[in-house]
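Exercise 7. Predict the joint structure of the components listed below.
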Amino acid sequence: AQSVTQLDSQVPVFEEAPVELRCNYSSSVSVYLFWYVQYPNQGLQLLLKYLSGSTLVKGINGFEAEFNKSQTSFHLRKPSVHISDTAEYFCAVSYQNDYKLSFGAGTTVTVRA
Amino acid sequence: GAGVSQSPSNKVTEKGKDVELRCDPISGHTALYWYRQSLGQGLEFLIYFQGNSAPDKSGLPSDRFSAERTGGSVSTLTIQRTQQEDSAVYLCASSQTGSIEKLFFGSGTQLSVL
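Solution:
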């Protein structure tokens, strides 16, 4: 069974500062990796995904993530955050050719002026 | 429609009552998922529909939970004899042909069981 661990439940950050959200997964087989964002009172929106190829993945709104197979990690980064990045962020994993996503518990990012 | 639509957006009910939650997926999407998001926890898979195939119900937490999908489109999640631990946000998602790479989520139904 897969499990996804998001190491930080809350991340406060000042506007224009960098942010990193950590995600580790447990799987011995090839996986697909995702980061989703959930703004208040909205559904989840895909930020970026890793399926294969380059381990550095760029997504929407200036976010990027790096897949590290040896460390089974997929950390999300943004070099300079905005107030509008305040949201909850979820890391998710699926086996290749599987239709289910396993989600982490989420990281709440609060950006302050 | 333009996106996945869920109704109601909020539902408050009394313990022991039955509730029905509705999901209207994106037109043409054959795959439909229900997930549950409890406070402080990640999303928990509940059930998966793909076309006319038998649904994957492996995530339903108890026999009080059931779901159906009529005509390959709208889905209803029913919770019978609700308990306080059922309080959560219930999210629906759809995709074309079950592609996990392109999953679209609705805004969810916030269920509160008093």
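Discussion. Chain B is about 0% helix and 45% strand.
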